[in-house]
Design goal:
Helix content: 40-55%
Shape: globular
Order of helices and strands: HHEHEHEEEEEHHHHHHH
Structural class: alpha+beta
Radius of gyration: 22 Å
Strand content: 5-15%
Distance between the termini: 19 Å
Largest sheet: 7 strands, mixed
Oligomer: single chain
Length: about 325
């Protein structure tokens, strides 16, 4: 069964990052930005900020246990001609601005390859990513380890993600959260970075599929079934690690984000999950279907409170007319 109401409860109560934490993230990013913007050394180079990654894509999930959640934001900056030959200086100088600040200088903070990280005790960390549009037209971030620019198009990626989510009736981002939950909370396909997961899942969303079958992305469980099934089919045709291009059209790839070993593990786990999801979705006995879904996602997968036949989250069953699963998958 689809059990769409159960998925709504599971996402809201277990998977999604709560609004209180999202509001706190927004407040802390604004405060960090203000601190850097007011810095005497780098403040004059700062032109703005924008959410990046899971925060921008609305795919952040609750962390495991007492682990921190994290978010990135782009710190938009102008070029400094004196730093032209040393891109890493931008990261170093943003770090220095944080280090000499009266508040953030006393908090955990460190330089990473592409960002400056500010940590908050037992709650979260924020990554500040220097981001520039160079005079030669390139849009770049810094690779501090290699002291080079890396071409990027974060807004292009976000626009691509939003367009794919629109095709999937707003369900793609929810599927991404569910798959992140399997990775983080159920220890499945560990080592697969979020940018890779988002790109591969989003790339499986097809406007043609939606045109041929208007119900292909009708709700969360149906979208989950179809996207994971389509991803499994794509992966099984590729035993060797494929190239994963940035869908924004920046011309870069995300291939350096994983190894053949990590890819092979991910490929095997998606194959197993595709079979599990299909079995749970196609089971017509409600109690059995719930148990199968709980076998995938855990006990947090449960019915809406006081569910009745008039519930605003009705239980949906599979009919013969539903164009859904492929049979014959092995776990």
């Amino acid at each position: 069964m689809q059990l769409a109401g159960h998925f709504n409860v599971f996402l809201k109560d277990t998977v999604n990052l709560g609004q209180v934490k999202l509001d706190l993230l927004d407040q802390r990013v604004n405060a960090i930005y203000k601190a850097v913007k007011n810095d005497d050394v780098v403040g004059s180079l700062v032109t703005g900020k924008s959410p990046q990654g899971s925060w921008a894509h609305r795919t952040i999930i609750e962390p495991v246990g007492t682990n921190e959640f994290d978010a990135d934001f782009m710190l938009n900056m102008k070029e400094n001609p004196d730093w032209a030959d040393n891109p890493s200086t931008y990261v170093d100088q943003v770090y220095a601005a944080i280090h000499r600040h009266s508040i953030y200088g006393n908090m955990p903070h460190t330089r990473k390859c592409r960002c400056v990280r500010v940590g908050y005790a037992n709650s979260m960390h924020v990554d500040i990513v220097p981001h520039l549009k160079l005079t030669d037209g390139r849009e770049v971030i810094v690779n501090r380890d290699a002291n080079t620019w890396e071409q990027t198009d974060p807004q292009g990626f976000t626009d691509w993600m939003r367009s794919k989510d629109a095709i999937a009736n707003g369900n793609l981002r929810k599927v991404i959260r569910l798959m992140k939950y399997l990775r983080d909370h159920k220890n499945s396909f560990t080592g697969t970075r979020s940018i890779l997961l988002t790109t591969m899942l989003g790339s499986r969303v097809s406007e043609v599929r939606e045109l041929l079958d208007p119900g292909y992305y009708v709700d969360v469980p149906t979208t989950l079934l179809h996207i994971v099934s389509d991803l499994d089919e794509w992966l099984q045709a590729r035993p060797a690690k494929p190239s994963i291009a940035d869908p924004s059209g920046s011309g870069v790839s995300f291939d350096h984000r994983w190894t053949q070993s990590t890819y092979s593990y991910f490929r095997d786990r998606v194959h197993a999950h595709a079979a599990e999801i299909e079995e749970a979705y196609m089971e017509v006995d409600k109690d059995k279907s719930v148990k199968l879904w709980q076998g995938i996602f855990g006990d947090g997968f449960k019915a809406p409170a006081a569910a009745t036949g008039n519930s605003k989250f009705p239980t949906t069953t599979v009919t013969a007319a539903s164009s859904v699963a492929r049979s014959g998958r092995a776990g």
